[in-house]
Amino acid sequence: MIDKKTTIIENAIKLFAAKGYHSTSIQEIADASGIAKGTLYNYFESKDDVMLSVLKYYSGMIMAEVEKIANDPSLTPKEVFWRQIHYQLDECVKHRDFIEMHIREYAVPVNEEINDFLFSIRSYRIQWLSNCFRAVYGKEIEPFVLDLATMMNGILREYLEYIILDKKQFDTIKLTKYIINRMDNLVKALRNSGEYFLEHSDLVDFLKNG
C-alpha cells in the first residue's frame, strides 16, 4: 500500500509535468491528493520541500533498479551495463513531460539543499559510469576511466535532449546498442593511444569542491 507522502509526491510529479513547477500551487497538490492544504504541511514544509522530495523519489527509483540489474548473477558486466543504460533511457521517455519541465523551466529554485542534492546525483553518475567501465573493460582502462565516464555522461545527456526537448521518437534498444558500440570504439582508441586528459585528482577535487 502506498503511503500518503508517496501519494502526494506522485501527484506533484503529474502536476509539475502538466503545468510547470512555478505554475503549480500547494493547494492544487493538496486537492489532487485528496487532503486539506494544512494536512499537506504535515508532510512537507514548503513547495521547495515537495520538489526536493520529488527529485529524491525519482532518482531513488532509478538507482534502485540500476542496483537490481547489477545484482543479477546471470548477467555479464557488459550485459549489466547495457540493461542499465536501456532502462534509464526508457524511464526518461516515460517521464518525458516532467523532465522537460525541469530542463526548460529550471524548475528547481535556488536552494542550497536542492543544489547539494543535484550535485550528489551528478557525482553519483560519474562514479557509477566509472565503475561500469572498470567492470566491462578491465583495470587497464584506469588511466582514462574518468574521461570515458565524462564523455559517456555527455553523450547520454545530448541524446536525452533530442528525445525530451526535440520530441524525437528513437528506438531506445537501437540507441543503447549504438552508444555502447561507440564506447567500445572509444576504449579501443584510448588503449591504443594511451592518451588521457582528466586525472584521478580531478575527480577528487570535483567531489570535494562541487
TrEMBL record:
Gene3D superfamilies of this UniProt entry? Tetracycline Repressor, domain 2
Superkingdom as given in the UniProt entry = Bacteria
A Gene Ontology molecular function term for this protein is: DNA binding
Q: Name one Pfam family in it.
A: TetR_N
Entry keyword set: DNA-binding, Repressor
What does the record give as the DNA-binding region?
Answer: 25-44
Q: Which residues form the HTH tetR-type domain?
A: 2-62
Q: What is this protein identified as?
A: Transcriptional regulator
Q: Which organism is it from?
A: Schinkia azotoformans MEV2011
Q: What phylogenetic lineage does the species belong to?
A: Bacteria, Bacillati, Bacillota, Bacilli, Bacillales
